Amino acid sequence: MDGSRPRWTAVAVTPSAGGEEIRLDDGCGGGGRYPYAWLRNNCRCSSCASGETGFRKQVIRDFQFRPVPDRFEIISDDVLYVKWDDSHVSTYDLQWLLERNFNEGQERREYQQIKWTAESFSTMLRSFKYENVIKSDEVLLQWLETLAIYGISIIKSCGLEHDRIKELAARVAFLKRTHYGKTFRVEAKDDATNLAYRSTYLQLHTDLPYYEYTPGVILLHCIIQPESSGGENEVTDGLFVCERLKEINPNRYKALSTIPVRWIDHGHDNGYNFHNIHHAPVIW
C-alpha cells in the first residue's frame, strides 16, 4: 500500500446514546461513524439498490431493523466490506461513506443565515457577473451560497435580452408557473389590477403569498431604468424583522406566526381572470 495514503481501520462500538455502529479511522484524525441499521439500509449491491438510479429496492416490511455484522474489514485500501448475520454481503466505497458520516456537526453542510440591516447592507451585498455565473460552476456555487446566507445578491452585465432570466434559472432548477406565467414583464399598464403594474409607489411586500408553494427565489431583471424619478428598489431582511419583533413583542410575534389570515389575489392578466385565496399566518 502507498505509504502516503491513509491506513484505514474499522472498529465496532456501542455509543452512549445506544445502538451499535462501525467507526472508521484513517489514523490521522479523520473518519466517520455509521450505525449498523443505516449501513444495512444503504447497501449498494444490485439486490438492494438500482444501479441506474441509486434508488433502494429493499421492501421496508422485510427489513431487519437490528442487523448485526458477522464480519467486516477494509479491503483494497478504500472499500468497507461487511458480511451480515443473514449472510448478506455489502461493500461501501470509503469516499462515499465519508461524504455521509454521522460525526457530530458533519452530518450535512448547512449555511448559517446572516441577518442584515440598512446600516450593514452596503458591506453585505455581493455582486456577480452574469457571464461568470452562467459559465463557471465555482461562481455559480458562490452565488447560491450568497443567496442561502444573505437572501439577496445582484447579478450585473445581464444584457437586455428578455430570456436572460430563463437562462439563469436553468442553471439552478426550474421556473415556477403562476397565473402571471413563468416570466412576466412588470411595466405600467392603464388597466392593471396589480399594484406592481402601476406607476405609484409600491411599499415593502412579500411576493405571491397567496400560493401554498411560494417560489424560493425571485429573479428581477431590470431592462429599462427611467430617467425620471421612480423605479428604485426597496428591500429589507425578513429574518431580521421577525427576530427583532420576537424580542421586543413576543405576543405579537406569536399572533402573526400562528393565526392564519387570508391572502388574496384576484384580477386579470395574460388574457384571463384569476382569483387566488390561501390561508396562512403572516410569518410562516
Keywords:
2 domains; alpha+beta; Double-stranded beta-helix; NE0471 N-terminal domain-like; three-stranded antiparallel beta sheet; 10 strands; about 20% strand; about 280 residues; elongated
Q: How is this structure best summarized?
A:
This protein has 284 residues and is α+β, with helices and mostly antiparallel strands.
Question: Can you tell me about this structure?
Answer:
The protein is of the alpha+beta class. It has 2 domains: 9-98, NE0471 N-terminal domain-like, CATH 3.30.2020; 158-280, Double-stranded beta-helix (4-Layer Sandwich), CATH 3.60.130.10. The protein has 8 helices and 10 strands. Helix 7 packs across helix 8. The radius of gyration is 26 Å and the shape is elongated. It starts with 8 loop residues before the first strand and ends with a strand. The mean pLDDT is 87.
